[in-house]
């Protein structure tokens, strides 16, 4: 596969146009993400949650409890971001953290009664977000599937690029 997209028949834009801001898919995705962030900020205000806190709560509402490491993996958050977030949720009385008796290094996060109760109030949020998009259910499912494919492809490309860089560094160290 080439590094640059090939123009398709009838494409009026030469390769140089791919360097314009409007030609960048990353910018379109970032703009959409920021728009979602603004909407979630308003919608989550009543719950007293930030968007990252809401994501943690979604996992816990789904599972009841989870190891910190699993939360980080599922949410794609590093421990430097996740730990203070969990600390704030714990201070708010929504979760509690417990060290594993079997492995002191492992910490599990559990919902409190208040955290579990917040789920009822949060139940209307996905519908409000979906309505705000103007997409029907089929469009939402299609977009999600495409974004999941995009994420997997980018993760694979980044992993390949990292391996190639490591190979060049290791080769140059001889």
Keywords:
single chain; 2 domains; Arc Repressor Mutant, subunit A; 7% strand; mainly alpha; three-stranded antiparallel sheet; 7 helices
Describe the protein's architecture and organization.
By secondary structure, the chain is mainly α. It folds into two domains: 24-134, Arc Repressor Mutant, subunit A, CATH 1.10.10.10; 135-174. It is 63% helix and 7% strand. It has a three-stranded antiparallel sheet. Strand 2 (95-99) and strand 3 (107-111) form a beta hairpin. The longest helix has 36 residues, at 137-172. The two termini are 31 Å apart.
The CATH superfamily of the largest domain is known as Winged helix-like DNA-binding domain superfamily/Winged helix DNA-binding domain
**DSSP strand (E) fraction?**
5-15%
Q: Encode the helix/strand succession as letters.
A: HHEHHEEHHH
Helix/strand class:
mainly alpha
Q: How many distinct domains?
A: 2
Radius of gyration over all CA atoms, rounded: 21 Å
Tell me, rounded to a whole number, the average pLDDT.
Answer: 88
Shape: flat
The parts where pLDDT drops under 50 for at least 5 residues are none
* Helix segment tally: 7
Topology-level CATH name of the largest domain: Arc Repressor Mutant, subunit A
Question: Percent of residues in helical segments?
Answer: 55-70%
Describe the biggest sheet? 3 strands, antiparallel
